[in-house]
Amino acid sequence: MGEENPKSDEYLRDEMFHVYGFDIETIPYYAAIISKSNIKSFLMMIGMPTIVLINYIAIFFCAFRIKFHKNSQMVFYSAQYQKINQILFRTLLAQVIVPTFIFFLPVILIYAIPFANLEISMNTSVFICSLSFYPAIDGIILLCLVPDYRNIFCIWKSRKNNAANK
């Protein structure tokens, strides 16, 4: 869908050199110029967020369908099993929601700036690099929401502190 555009090349040549220190002739890039006459770029800018939105709708639909289906059958299971099931459900939802707010929403905001006709110059590599923290955040969510992991972590931390104080 993307194609070369002299207007975007002209704008990006200076911007990429001043902000990142790169010559646009040496790196691959895609720059969308939003206008009524450039329908391909408009479709590209609308298409990607639509795909992400459909994914989130599917995730939440399946999660809540499973939740309500399981609740109707939970009367046959023990209290311990019900508790584990509830913890698992909360953990799975947190593993979807937390990264969305911490990582993906800032990237979406940067992605949507051209629609507002704002000329903002900033180094967005911080947002892109923050995506590498996803595995750590995922582990922290598990440590915080699963009581057994949280208890083991607290015991380990207290032993480590006690050893350091001796």
TrEMBL record:
* UniProt key word Lipoprotein: no
Write down the SUPFAM superfamilies for this protein, in alphabetical order. Answer: Family A G protein-coupled receptor-like
Q: Which residues cross the membrane?
A: 42-66, 87-113, 125-146
Q: Which UniProt keywords apply?
A: Membrane, Transmembrane, Transmembrane helix
Q: What is this protein called?
A: Uncharacterized protein
